[in-house]
Every structure is written in C-alpha cells, then in structure tokens.
Amino acid sequence: MSKIDTSRDDLALGRTIRSSPGIGSVAQVVQHAPLLCRRLASDGPGLVLVEKGRKIIRSDDVELTASVGQVVLVPDGCDFDVINEPAADGPYRAVALNFAPALFQELRTGCAPALRRIEVLADPPAAFRQACDVAVQAIAGHQVLPGVVAAARVREILLWLDGFGYRLELRGGDDLVARLRRMLVAEPARSWRAAPVAASIGMSEPSLRRHLAARGTSFTDVLVDVRMTAALYLLQSTDQAITQIALAVGYDSASRFSVRFRSRFGFAPSEIRGHHREFERNGTKYELDGAAPMMAG
Q1: Residue 221 and residue 26 in contact, taking contact as beta carbons nearer than 8 Å
Q2: Nearest residue to 199 (alpha-carbon basis) of 191, 207, 190
Q3: Which residues contact 121 (CB under 8 A, 6 or more apart)?
Q4: What is the pLDDT of residue 142?
Q5: Is residue 13 located within the same domain as residue 143?
Q6: Which backbone phi and psi does 102 adopt, to 5 degrees?
Q7: CA dist., res. 170 & res. 182, Å (int)
Q8: What pLDDT does 274 receive?
Q9: 171 found inside a domain
Q10: pLDDT per residue of the chain (297 residues) written in tens, 0 to 9
Q11: 212, 245, 253, 255: least buried by Cβ within 10 Å?
Q12: Considering 142, 164, 186, which residue would you say is the last residue of a domain?
C-alpha cells in the first residue's frame, strides 16, 4: 500500500498551505467535528486524498463518500455540500492538491470528456498514489527542483486522470462569476470595489451588477462567499489564530468576521478545530479560542 493510505508525516507538510507559482498548492486539511458545509464552490480544479475519517459530498442530488486511501476529484466551478467526518480515534485528515491555471496551458490530453461533477476514485492504483506523493513533494518544495520539472510532476497527475477517463480543465472565460471569483480569491484581503473590478473585466459597474443579478447574486455576495470559503480553508489547514485569519480575508475586526462566518456556515470558526467553549455576558455569547474573546453572534 502507498503511504497515502495512512499518514503524510514523511511529506512534512506541517500546518501551512504550501504553494508554487504557476503549478499549484497543497495543504493538509484537519477537521475535528463533522460539520456540514453548504454551498461550497470550487474556484479551480483539484483533488483530495483522504487519510483518516471519511468525506461525504452532496452535489446534484447525488451523495458520494470517500474513505481512507480514496481520492476525490473536484472540477472547476462545482457547487457542493460536504461533511468531513472524523475517525473514531482522531480528526478527519486529508491532503488537498489544487492545480494552478497555468498548468493547463499546452496540456495535451486524450479524448476523455471534461469532468463536470465531483467523482471519487474508490480504488486508485498504487502507481497513481505514488505519483500523487511525488506531486505533493514537488509543490511543498522539500527538494530544489527547476520549475519545469516540478510542473511536469504535478501535470503527470492530470495525465493519469485523463487515462482514467476524467479530464480536469478550467471553466471557460465567458463565465462571469467564475472570472470574478478567480480574481477575488487571489487576494481575499484586498479592499475590492465593484467599479474597478468591472473595468478590469471590460464592463461598466452597472453592467456587472445586472449580469450578477441575473445569476441571482451580487458583487458583495460573491466577495463575502470567496472570503468565507478562504477562511474555512485556513481554519482547516493552518494553526493561525482566528484574529490572523480574519485579517487574511479582509476583516479588521475578529468579532465581525466570526459573526459573518457563522452567518455563512451556521457554526463558529473555532468549531472547525474542535473548540466549542462559550461564556455569556449580558445576553451576548462569546467564543473562547485562546486569544481575546470574540462575539459568536
């Protein structure tokens, strides 16, 4: 069996998100409670390698389950609900591998149709699992590799998947929400404004707002969702304090961030890490997370 089935201590990912420009990013996701995260949107193609516990995904009225050693394929632009369910003896653990857009340039694949929905590789070959280990190492930077070599090692995963009949690709440039999300997710902490964003994608602000309204959303809704999704990933894959995560996604106030996060997901940020301690003062609930108290809302 490949080491992917048990632990990635040998890969020394640590509690951080490691990235390589133009190639991708990788992180070890850890979650202590089986929380339901609704309406997540993938802002790029990637895969999840389940190490402990199991992952339950609901998309397009279909429920999929990925257990230890199995691989979840996530296409670009997919909306889904997910539960990361811990094991009996410890938290849910997985490695998330995200592919950079540049990796798809001049990629020559076979005739497999583009993947449009989440799929689970229930019994991936050992050679593929080993290739995933190599790709993770290439991004994590434990070896000094020329960029073209690191890119080739990660691109090999895309070729493997194409051979399995699953072609990952980027959503077309005519998808306005996808273009907008891709811009915002690159800098979630930035003070984004609709007018300059509209100009950068070649339209007026009123036109941008009309197009988004026709899709049942708004500039503010998209921005908040991008920021909360980024915060969720940071909570799962780093040990940063909630105050730091709030700043990383554009909130100067940790309490305001916590209220917004709870409004989006239905649970407090600290619950991702298994912390659910509260005290009440004057009718207001506060979270205790090892730092200053924050309003839970």
Answers
A1: no
A2: 207
A3: 70, 71, 72, 73, 128, 164
A4: 65
A5: yes
A6: -65, -25
A7: 11
A8: 83
A9: no
A10: 333 333 444 456 778 899 999 999 999 999 999 999 999 999 999 999 999 999 999 998 899 999 999 999 999 989 999 999 999 999 999 999 999 999 988 787 777 888 999 999 999 999 999 999 999 999 987 677 899 999 999 999 999 999 999 999 987 666 899 889 999 999 999 999 999 999 999 999 999 999 999 999 999 999 999 999 999 999 999 999 999 999 999 999 999 999 999 999 999 999 999 864 443 334 444 333 332 222 222
A11: 253
A12: 164
CATH of the domain at 231: 1.10.10.60
Q: How far apart are CA 190 and CA 247, in angstroms?
A: 10
Per-residue three-class SS string for 108-172: CCCCCCECCCCEEECCCCHHHHHHHHHHHHHHHCCCCCCHHHHHHHHHHHHHHHHHHCCECCCCC
Cα–Cα dist 297/286, whole Å: 8
**What gap in Å lies between CA 30 and CA 231, rounded to an integer?**
14
Distance, in Å, from the CA atom of 132 to the CA atom of 153, rounded to the nearest integer, reads: 9
Q: What residue type is assigned to position 165 of the chain?
A: G
74: helix, strand or coil: strand
CA atoms lying within 13 Å on the CB side of residue 222: 26
Nearest alpha-carbon partner for 231 in 183, 191, 181, 185: 185
Contact by Cβ (8 Å): 203, 265: no
| Domain containing residue 42 | 3-164
Q: Are residues 192 and 122 in the same domain?
A: no
Residue 234 tokens, joined = 């940071």
295 within 8 A of 258, measured Cβ to Cβ = yes
Residue finishing a domain among 135, 164, 193: 164
Q: How far apart are CA 151 and CA 153, in angstroms?
A: 5
Tell me how far CA of residue 170 lies from CA of 21, 165, 178, in angstroms.
17, 17, 10
